[in-house]
Amino acid sequence: MISRLLIANRGEIALRIVRACRELDIESVVVYSQADAGSPYLDLADEAICIGPGPSAQSYLSIPSIISAAEIANVDAVHPGYGFLAENAHFAEVCRANNIEFVGPEEDTIRRVGDKAEAKNAAKAAGIPVVEGSDGPVETDEKALDIARKIGYPVLIKAVSGGGGRGMRIAHNDISLSSGFQTARAEAETAFGDSSVYIEKYLENPRHVEIQIIADKHGHVVHLGERDCSVQRRHQKVIEESPSPGIPNDARKAMGRAAVKLAKQVGYHGAGTVEFLYEHKKFYFIEVNARIQVEHPVTELTTGIDLIKEQIRLASGEQLGYKQQQVQQKGHAIECRINAEDPDRNFTPSPGLITHVTTPGGPGVRVDSHVTTGSRVPPYYDSMIGKLLVWSDTRTSAITRMRRALDEYRIEGIKTNLPLHRRILRNAYFERGEYATHFLDELLTT
User: Fold this and answer.
1) 132-201 maps to which CATH number?
2) What is the pLDDT of residues 386-437, one digit of tens each?
3) Domain boundaries in the chain?
4) pTM for the whole thing?
5) Omega before 349 within 30 of 0, i.e. cis
6) Are 224 and 320 in contact (CB under 8 A)?
7) If you ran DSSP here, which 8-state letter would residue 239 be given?
8) Residue 214: exposed, middle, or buried by beta-carbon count in 10 A (0-12, 13-18, 19+)?
9) Topology of domain 207-444, CATH
10) What positions carry a catalytic annotation?
């Protein structure tokens, strides 16, 4: 078993991993930037090491700084969390070259599934339906136009690397394709250091559903059910829930089998997700996320499986220890991402000093957050400052519980998206489960 672990991340996921380490009796080392100095969660780790200034490129994205910290702290493993270097194959390779275990898949697997076009080809080879589009990266306007005209508008221009809605544009005609193609390439280069994009058919109003997989290094793979991530703003997830209210059981089971098949096809180990779009009673593979997801607690609440502990255990070489038929989902879980954003200014980030926090509690309520009264939200990182989750035996009672928890939640000194969540949870379409990926954008325009 890993005995000393460095956490190459920050905020709520760093705190989440520290807590898992404590329960596994593993020593934890947290790195931090100068902007995060003084954060309360740093005191909960066994050691904390500053790795540079606030900007990510000089701290959390600096492989030399993180490797130096790992060597100074004499750790035997690194957990990358999500974001930053979590899906960076070179980082995984450097860790292992220095005899430091990387808590995640092999670097070759990360590269294969991280290239969305390559992952799509792997899905095809496994007999999994994919959205129609280019077979690989598209280098020129002319080629993009040829593909778009062949499969028919609208089409989606999508960065081969990365995620979070960056490097992504919708085109409804030749003119918007040409302009969107160049914009997407430039944005992808800035965000991911890779300007490659590909083209696929744009589904008008699908549900976005992801399957959680977990696999050991001995070839055993299971899925832990699905999460519905369709409540999004500009392709970024806002609310997740499980089970999905809009997916019939036969489709749910078929997606689970497809996810496991793909994981075996690419030799995957560790925790990850296989993402699908579901429309008109059909599902289509879109991508693999080779890391733990922000929304992993939704699955933890419905299965009782601690995914962070599982990641660490499996990275240590242990076997899975349970089969697919032993995985049981119970009840219903919902997660609301709490972001430091100003709803009155088109949800622009709202960094600053948090002057007061009151977190909700009670049965079936979980808050994963690193901020407290007196915390300062830096301007350098993602705006998410926490996650509010609820569990109950039915979706109806889970919605009621989430409404109550949202009403209890108070964060003062900065702007947050709490008012938006309260509005969504009281929306009749959401309450009935009648929503898809355009639900929130349409709600915000009414």
Assistant:
1) 3.30.1490.20
2) 999 999 999 999 999 999 999 999 999 999 999 999 999 999 999 999 999 9
3) 4-103, 132-201, 207-444
4) 0.93
5) no
6) no
7) E
8) buried
9) D-amino Acid Aminotransferase; Chain A, domain 1 (3.30.470)
10) 291
